[in-house]
From TrEMBL:
Residues 396-415, 726-745 are annotated as: Disordered. Keywords: GTP-binding, Mitochondrion, Nucleotide-binding, Protein biosynthesis. NCBIfam families: small_GTP. The lineage of its organism: Eukaryota, Fungi, Fungi incertae sedis, Zoopagomycota, Kickxellomycotina. SUPFAM superfamilies: EF-G C-terminal domain-like, P-loop containing nucleoside triphosphate hydrolases, Ribosomal protein S5 domain 2-like, Translation proteins. CDD domains: EFG_III, EFG_mtEFG_C. Pfam families: EF-G_D2, EFG_C, EFG_III, EFG_IV, GTP_EFTU. InterPro entries: EF-G-like_DII (IPR053905), EFG_II (IPR041095), EFG_III (IPR009022), EFG_III/V (IPR035647), EFG_V (IPR035649), EFG_V-like (IPR000640), G_TR_CS (IPR031157), P-loop_NTPase (IPR027417). It comes from Smittium megazygosporum. This is Elongation factor 2.
Length: 940
């Protein structure tokens, strides 16, 4: 049923195989072949494999909502020759925003990947959403990118979500270009943007261009227009309305060229360059431009000299002697590239995508300054301490130590896993990372991967090292052009593409070639960050929700990571903050609803469906109101699931206030057999510092596992399970026959595994209202067996759950509410109303009132301040916008108070205000509010 509905719906009506007739009809396919031909021409000769990798650019478009990411991408596709006509976000016909919900709302929801060519380079570009509710899309894209283009709206400057995505990129050391877009809008301010790049992003901007406005030309506009026309044939049309707000052209201060854009004609390649240097001597009108360019070049050169030693040496050489005019531009470019790739600085470019202005230099700069996969550091793989390989190594080491009569109480030999360096080599074993899953009705499950090492071939077999070593058959490989796939034979290291055929892979999994063992012999070394290598699987809820009918795709095994070798770290998924109940219209609709939800969860790991332990209701949790609104709309309108959607509610958390130890006695008769255990447990709250860290020294003695939501599970080192050995060993052996799990598993490991599994699910059901727990350390102190039988994992699981329940009950459970950092952007005259609404009506604590720049008398850039006084345009700016710059009100507000804020803000600001919010932590709810919340949820 699900497949049928999916296939009927236009979103999912993907073209199964692009046939030649269809190809001709698609707006872009004419150019697809060229790219692939380009790609395949490189690397066919021996020794040139690395040359072809150096021609790849894996880049992302990231920014605050509406900065112009999709509009810019659309132009990039057009100028690269990939599409024949430019689509517009506002008309709902762009290549990248292909989902109906995206086209309807004019926003990006899904991060779409596309491959196209520019100057013989292969661009794998991902256009990411700017809305914070879809932050997981940014997170998983950034994870596989080598560089990104951060887009700023020239009027709004550095906005809240831009700061968030910048931080995300910084976390993974991703070099960043900055494109200041929308220079055609009144109120655009280059100065303000540059100030904010430094102050809000803490970055060093390198201005590579000067946008030259009509008012910069000291009344010589006509002469300069003639001069441009004579040199490159472009008519600047200085009398048109648009040239009053849009820059006339750009000066490239690196190459000292003028770059013009024929925005009137909108022709295939509308950019024209000519050298300022060659014309400046003959033409007196170009003197102004020359001066502007040299001033900016001096600043650029000075800035580079201060951070790049090699460049400083060139600059101070005898021939150049510090003169910015004399520095050859390849030297400047090389220094910019070095500093960009090492994330010390970010080149800044200017334009107005909507006006087709400034796009080609962005494409050129991606090639010039952003890294190829060869220039980026590869992720470090973690090696599982329980993998057979490491165990063997461990054993050898133990034997050798025993021979040397070393003390018995030695520290564990491989306590924390190992790390292994991944080679960027097309001939090495395959290491690929699954960063996205899409369920396609015709192709099945599409796994988007980045290949870090080796060459991934169609029809090969892979091992999913994150998911218990499951073997995956690669049926097909697809290169994606947004919604359109094209089949290819292989992906080389550095490539991004889609695998068809995987059955047990989800977002965040690592796929290895079958020859992966040799990876463990290279550069293997102890992991410096022990806790992080023990990430517990994050999918228990899926299993819980689907029950035992989950099927292979949802099988949960706490032995995850224990089977084979090396894995890359998964993707961080922020905790959900909103949820709503969803009920099938009738019992017969339940199965289909659950199927739909299961597919949607596979595609979107930030969506969680669970069953309320209190009410038995089906709950849907997500990243925000918009996220859940889009999910439920899709569920009902596109997938035709018949369901009632309940009220949007805040997703609380639970924790404990008091360290508590219990010795829990469990006794139960199951199918005639008596099971009797005593489980000793300590639960204690973990104190986190402001940056989310905590003192890990406590954990040193124990075997520790990181669970979800900042909870930890520890097994006491002296834990003794001898009593259980024989029966559990049998149990463990029989399991090994049917799985590919660790062959050297012991009875102790087996019991720990069962307890681990039980506790991992228990943390999702807090004692107050059944919300997930956070900040709790659970330590298993003892485990004793008295009954007839110890062979039932189900009984051990029940006993563990019952023990944890008892411990939580007495440990002063607390209810935590999410507190958001809210940035409201409003016009100055609305500040008072909005602050009062926040403080009085919504329990907000105001943190700051961001002062917009009030004095922009220096126009859009400060190189030519005296021109402004005589210019009409500046006057227009002053009247309309300079006194009107928006203010940012930054506050902390409990999320429950933010429900419905958007409509109130709309009323208070006549539709001009906007806001963003992100989780800033959780605060304990006082007793009075706790009572209210409990009543609201339980209804009594
Ligand atoms: N005036 C002007 N408007 C622009 C320019 N670039 C984009 N826009 C408009 O800005 C709006 C948002 O553009 P998008 O390209 O969807 O922005 P986005 O960053 O992709 O948005 P999300 O993906 O939803 O975060 C659209 O109405 C565009 O037409 C520009 O250079 N000038």
């Amino acid at each position: 049923m699900l497949a049928k509905v999916l296939s009927q719906h236009s979103v999912y009506t993907r073209i199964t195989k692009i046939n030649p007739i269809l190809r001709a009809k698609l707006p872009f396919v004419k150019y697809c072949n060229n790219i692939n031909n380009n790609k395949r021409n490189y690397g066919t000769q021996k020794g040139s494999e690395f040359d072809s990798i150096s021609l790849i650019r894996n880049i992302g478009m990231v920014a605050h909502v509406d900065a112009g990411k999709t509009t810019t991408t659309e132009r990039m596709l057009f100028y690269s020759g990939f599409i024949k006509r430019v689509g517009e976000v506002d008309l709902g016909n762009t290549v990248m925003d292909y989902l109906p919900a995206e086209r309807e709302r004019g926003i990006t929801i899904n991060s779409a990947a596309i491959t196209f060519g520019w100057r013989n380079h292969q661009f794998n570009l991902i256009d990411t959403p700017g809305h914070i509710d879809f932050t997981i899309e940014v997170e998983r894209s950034i994870r596989v990118l080598d560089g990104c283009v951060t887009i700023l709206d020239a009027v709004s400057g550095v906005q809240a979500q831009t700061i968030n995505v910048w931080k995300q990129a910084k976390k993974y050391n991703i070099p960043k270009l900055i494109f200041i877009n929308k220079l055609d809008r009144e109120g655009a301010s280059i100065k303000r943007n540059l100030v904010e790049i430094k102050s809000k992003l803490n970055a060093t901007p390198l201005e590579l261009q000067i946008p030259v406005f009509s008012f910069d030309l000291k009344g010589k506009e006509k002469e300069i227009a003639g001069f441009v026309k004579q040199n490159c044939g472009v008519d600047l049309n200085i009398n048109s309305n648009i040239s009053k707000v849009l820059p006339l052209f750009l000066i490239d201060v690196v190459s000292m060229e003028i770059i013009c854009f024929d925005i009137q004609k909108g022709i295939f390649n509308n950019s024209f360059r000519f050298s300022l240097n060659s014309t400046s001597k003959d033409d007196p009108t170009s003197e102004i431009l020359w001066k502007m360019a040299i001033k900016a070049r001096s600043e650029l050169v000075e800035s580079l000299g201060s951070m790049d030693d090699a460049f400083l040496e060139t600059l101070l050489s005898e021939e150049i002697n510090g003169d910015p005019e004399l520095v050859p531009h390849p030297e400047i470019k090389a220094a910019i590239r070095r500093q960009t790739i090492s994330c010390n600085a970010s080149p800044v470019l200017f334009g107005a995508s909507y006006r087709n202005f400034g796009i080609q230099p962005v494409l050129d700069s991606i090639i010039e300054y952003l890294p190829s996969p060869l220039d980026t550091s590869l992720p470090i793989g973690s090696v599982n301490p329980s993998s057979a390989f490491v165990k063997k190594k461990n054993l050898l080491k133990t034997q050798s130590r025993k021979n040397e009569n070393e003390p018995k109480n030695e520290s564990p030999l491989v306590p924390d896993g190992f790390t292994s360096k991944i080679p960027l080599d097309p001939n090495a074993p395959v290491v690929a990372f699954a960063f996205k899953v899409v369920i396609d009705p015709q192709r099945g499950t599409m796994i988007y991967v980045k290949v870090y090492s080796g060459t991934l071939n169609a029809k090969s077999t892979l091992i999913n090292s994150t998911n218990n070593g499951a073997r995956e058959k690669v049926n097909k490989l697809l290169q994606m052009y947004a919604d359109y796939p094209e089949e290819v034979n292989s992906f080389k290291c550095g490539d991004i593409g889609v695998i068809i055929g995987c059955k047990n892979t989800r977002t965040g999994d690592t796929l290895l070639g079958t020859d992966h063992k040799s990876l463990l012999n290279i550069n293997i070394k102890p992991n410096k960050n022990p806790q992080s290598s023990k990430n517990s699987p994050d999918i228990f809820q899926t299993k819980d929700f689907l029950g035992d009918n989950a099927g292979a795709e949802f099988s949960v095994d706490s032995k995850k990571h224990e089977a084979v070798g090396m894995y890359l770290h998964g993707i961080n998924i922020p905790p959900p903050v909103f949820f709503c109940s969803i009920e099938p219209e009738s019992p017969s609709d339940e199965k289909y609803l659950k199927e739909c939800l299961a597919s949607m969860m596979l595609e979107d790991p930030s969506l969680i469906a669970s069953i309320s332990p209190e009410s038995g209701q089906l709950l849907l949790s997500g990243m925000g109101e918009l996220h859940l609104e889009i999910v439920t709309n899709r569920l009902i309108n596109e997938l035709k699931a018949k369901a009632f959607v309940g009220k949007m509610r805040v997703s609380y958390r639970e924790t404990i206030g008091l360290p508590t130890t219990v010795n829990h006695a469990f006794e139960k008769t199951i199918q005639g057999k008596n099971y009797k255990f005593h489980i000793g447990l300590t639960v204690e709250p973990i104190q986190f510092s402001e940056d989310g860290d905590f003192d890990k020294s406590d954990f040193n003695e124990d075997e520790v596992y990181e669970l979800d939501n900042k909870n930890y599970l520890a097994f006491d080192n002296s834990l003794d399970f001898e009593e259980s050995s024989a029966q559990i060993k049998t149990q463990a052996k029989s399991r090994q026959k049917s799985t590919t799990s660790d062959q050297t598993g012991t009875n102790i490991d087996e019991i720990k595994r069962i307890i681990h599994g039980a506790i991992s699910t228990s943390i999702y059901q807090g004692p107050i209202l059944g919300f997930s727990l956070t900040g709790v350390k659970i330590k298993v102190n003892s485990f004793a067996h008295f009954g007839d039988d110890l062979s039932s994992p189900a009984a051990i699981k029940m006993a563990s759950k019952s023990a944890i329940k008892e411990a939580f009950k007495t440990a002063e459970p607390l209810l935590l509410e999410p507190v958001m950092k809210v940035t409201v952007n409003v016009q100055p005259e609305h500040v008072g109303y909005v602050m009062s609404e926040l403080e009085r009506g919504r329990r907000a604590t105001i943190l700051s009132l961001g002062e917009g720049e009030s004095d922009f008398g220096n126009s859009n850039h400060d190189t030519n301040s005296d021109t402004n006084q005589t210019n009409n345009l500046v006057g227009t700016f002053k009247n309309n916008t300079f006194g009107q710059l928006n203010k940012d009100i930054i506050s902390r507000v409990p999320l429950s108070s933010m429900i419905g804020f958007s409509s109130v803000l709309r009323k208070l600001t006549a539709g001009s205000g906007s806001f963003t919010m992100a989780v800033d932590g959780f605060n304990a709810v006082d007793e009075k509010s706790k009572g209210k919340i409990i009543k609201e949820f339980r209804g009594y």
